[in-house]
Input
Amino acid sequence: MLALRIADVRIEVEERAFSVDEAKRAREAFYTSASGFVMPAVSIDGARIGDGRPGPVATKLRALYIEQARHEAI
Output
């Protein structure tokens, strides 16, 4: 289970509501979907997030998700 893998690598998770303005001020961001897994977001409404490149947490989460999906594939 991916949640357990996240705990293994000690990624702190906070789930809460946030505004678009707060998201635009984030150091990094990502979104999830069934087909895209975990995708880093580098901008929101044209506003650059952080330095405009995928951040380390989003990159790590994507790698963990893909690894887990491959492990669980039939």
